[in-house]
Amino acid sequence: MNKLLLTLTLCLPATVFAQDRLMGKAWTTRSVVMAQRGMACTSHPLSTQAAIDVLKAGGTAIDAAIAANAMEGVVEPHVNGIGGDLYAIVWDAKTKKLYGLNASGRSPYSLTLDEFKKRGLTHIPATGPLPVSVPGCVDGWFELHKRFGKLPMEKLLSNAIHYAREGYPVHDEASISWASMISRLGNLPNVKETYAPNGAAPKRGEIFKNPALANTLEKIAKGGRDAFYKGDIARTIDAFMKRVGGFLSYRDLAEHTSDWIEPVSTSYRGYDVWELPPNGQGIAALQMLNILEGYDFSKIPWGSPEHVHLFVEAKKLVYEDRAKYYADPAFAQIPVKELISKPYANERRKLIDMNRALTKIDAGSFNVALKDGDTIYLTVADGEGNMVSLIQSNFRGFGSGMVPDGLGFMFQDRGELYSLQEGQNNTYAPHKRPFHTIIPAFVTKDGQPFMSFGVMGGSFQPLGHVQIIMNMIDYGMNPQEAGDAPRIDHQGSSEPTGEKMEGVGEITLESGYSYETIRDLMRKGHKIGFGLGGYGGYQAIMYDAKNKVYHGATESRKDGQAQGY
């Protein structure tokens, strides 16, 4: 029955989404939002509003992004929160330079590889205490604020505190994830008390309050980052973890630090695309762009079999390198410069057959010694020209199921992404950062900011980044059209957690690709499937330097909002 439904779905004609709009691509859902003094694009209207409030009060783009992220943890706990990690790329208008922040946490000192062996595990589970690493979000806020902030933290967190205490109506996407989480994790300590105080997950439109989270945010606003990592909050976490058989300790929290790092880039047809180096997967987007730059897409129509085929084959090649090399650079030598070089891309490109899908690929060699995720991405720009690209996540859904007593949040399960196979770059070790999927991005043109953007969604994120860049640069779309365009995903590549690619994997396509394209891809040996809702979420701000106007775009598949003034 499922195969029949799949076949019928794929045979349907391309869906037109525009509802007879007067301009734009057929799939465009709304116009780009344009403004000059400030812009905020987030995945929830209340978060966008919190950012705009801060901008109007004289805060910087970075201040506004912190306020929006704090609000996101309140209104979208199914995808982010202070139990997770954070990365950011900041364009500073004064120095005319990009700055990168890695605010991801490390594994517990007391949890060893031998512990996993004793338990007979070959993969770290998604729930329980084992995948819990130090949450880096709060430290990330204060690092950003110390360097680029202007308004006091009490002001920045005030909206989030208010809505956590007074409540807010639960939106569509959150309500679906919420019900699933309570079904799966409701028997774990403090989960129902925190997220289903009335005995069931809140339904769409119902008011949800989280007074415990409001209290935690108040302590952070008044006491700073040390209130979380060295104060009563840290002691509560330590005691909770000991009680549930966990390994995260007061020492792990007290010794946590974020790192300011240099973004890395490649040029794509005259535009410089910037990502953060590992432990994240951002350079996968740069590697893909380098390979794809060798093809003339002015002669390859969007949505054609050639377009999809080349995109997927480039992804397969790059994800073998991702599986082998990407990890915590404090524990492994990662040839970043070589991986994102044009000569390397030229060599890898030779492996692509225009007429046949690759089935077996090895990673590249150098002389040196993922599954779906739930995330929020937001971007903010201010009247002084500062822009921030920020991404934050719990990894899977709400996270690990571990909710410390009375604190109102759940810990991430990011530690699931270590490999338990010895001798690999991403093999588990104490006090080590895991391979990370969440990646912010930025584009410059002639040394000036062009676009701050990101695409959520686990292993899909580099694919999403590349599609946005190609849609705009190769196919002339505006930021909203580029995000609304039907997306391409591919699953089945080798993973940093140890899994190996077998066969061609599976391409999944959103509605909007023609039957002719699907048929021709199958003739090239690709396996084609249909995915529902697994294509990430997107926000972007493009800067028109000539007219000094920000162009904001938001994800049509989720509950987001772009707003400027």
Q: Topology of this protein?
A:
Blueprint: H1 2-11, E1 33-35, E2 39-42, H2 45-56, H3 61-75, E3 85-92, E4 97-103, H4 113-118, H5 137-148, H6 153-166, E5 168-169, H7 172-185, H8 191-195, E6 207-208, H9 211-223, H10 225-229, H11 232-243, H12 250-254, E7 259-261, E8 264-268, E9 271-275, H13 283-292, H14 305-325, H15 336-339, H16 342-349, E10 374-381, E11 387-395, E12 441-445, E13 448-455, H17 461-474, H18 479-484, E14 488-491, E15 506-509, H19 515-523, E16 528-529, E17 538-544, E18 549-554, E19 561-564
Parallel strand pairs: 15-16
Antiparallel strand pairs: 1-18, 2-10, 2-19, 3-4, 3-11, 4-7, 5-6, 8-9, 9-12, 10-11, 12-13, 13-17, 14-15, 17-18
Helix pairs in contact: 2-3, 3-6, 6-9, 13-14, 13-16, 13-17, 14-19
How does this model look, in words?
- There is one protein chain.
- The protein is of the alpha+beta class.
- It has a domain at about 1-35 and about 260-370 and about 435-565: 4-Layer Sandwich (Glutamine Phosphoribosylpyrophosphate, subunit 1, domain 1).
- The protein has 19 helices and 19 strands.
- The strands form 4 sheets. The protein has a 7-stranded antiparallel beta sheet. Strands 7-4-3-11-10-2-19 form a 7-stranded antiparallel beta sheet. A 3-stranded mixed beta sheet has the order 14-15-16.
- One of its GO terms (molecular function) is leukotriene C4 gamma-glutamyl transferase activity.
